[in-house]
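Hey all, quick one. A colleague (J.T.) asked me to put the pyridoxal-5'-phosphate job into the tracker so the inputs and the structure tokens live in one place instead of scattered across chat threads. No bug as far as I know, just bookkeeping. Sequence used:
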Amino acid sequence: MINNIEIIKAKTTKINDVDFDNLKFGHVFSDHMLECKFKDGKWETPKVVPYQALSLDPSAKIFHYGQSVFEGMKAYKDENENVWLFRPLDNFKRLNISSKRLAIPELPENYFMDGLKTLLQVDNEWIPQKGGSSLYIRPFVFASGNGFHASPADEYTFIIATAPSGAYFSGKVKVLIEEKYSRSANGGVGYAKAGGNYAGQFYPTQLAIDKGYQQVIWTDDNTHEYIEEAGAMNIFVRINDTLVTGPTSDRILDGITRKSIIELAEAEGIPVEVRKLTVHEVVSAAKDGSLKEMFGAGTAAVISPIAGFGYKGTDYDLPELENTYASSLKKRITDIQTNKAEDPFGWRYKVE
Ligand code: PLP
Ligand code: COI
């Protein structure tokens, strides 16, 4: 544990203005944030400071060349006020994988982990206890160094900001299988949590929203024949009783929820296939009734059931089932995350 993390407390708290019974996702922010800079070739020791606006030079490279990566995590408080994270080292490792791809310096593990734990201790009151709510944690690193030269910056800023949050989606979502645009390509940055990956999705997603869908299902950039991801989630399809999800690649984020669901489903005796999945197969399964479920999986959305999908001008509805894999797996994973069930996998991490 780094024992010299300086804590500069906010003069007042905003917590009394927050309606913890009606939390939206990522809308109000806790009193403090963790911050440190990379300067002169090294990371400075992180500090906990009041949550505040940043001051950046207009030439800061983040604005021009988009060097920015982030993570998404959650902290949960159980009925005994214990605070838990879910597989946090995987988020730390993935942040560095993303940073490396964007030529951003990697962070030391103790700066991330000890910094996060200290921040959660300072803002403990902000961690919701109510079922379905949690403290959404957003670690991010961006190029705060200046200059118009198109090359990596010489200064970076690492921040962890947090937001008490409710559900990301309310209810089931209707998705559109993408035929033209791509979110990622071979050799690109699709496997990284790079800010620009999301910017590139907004326009095609808005076109889908205008047509009455909430999300785009991304297909491979080359042929648009393979199902890859669902917006900011990995995607699972249930055909008869088998759960299928695509293999991770250069183009697909290695989701922590995705890999946990694969392990959980296998442990429950659900047949799981990690293999390429064609749009053709999903459309045929929808037509012959063997397509039972589709759902997205990610930290923010947890497991988000899909009500139906559109493809080449036709809408396909999924059946309304009584007992779904989506609901049983969501209960299994959230029970583990919130310390309501045993954690045979060793995923839960106590913050103390
Ligand atoms: N895919 C993308 C593009 C994402 O942004 C996310 C969200 O983090 C995921 C998948 C799911 O990843 P995880 O389960 O690690 O949150
Ligand atoms: C997450 O699931 O944590 C994400 O990062 C998705 C985000 C884009 C809202």
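Adding what we noticed when we looked at it: The domain at 6-165 is CATH 3.30.470.10 (D-amino Acid Aminotransferase; Chain A, domain 1). The mean pLDDT is 97.
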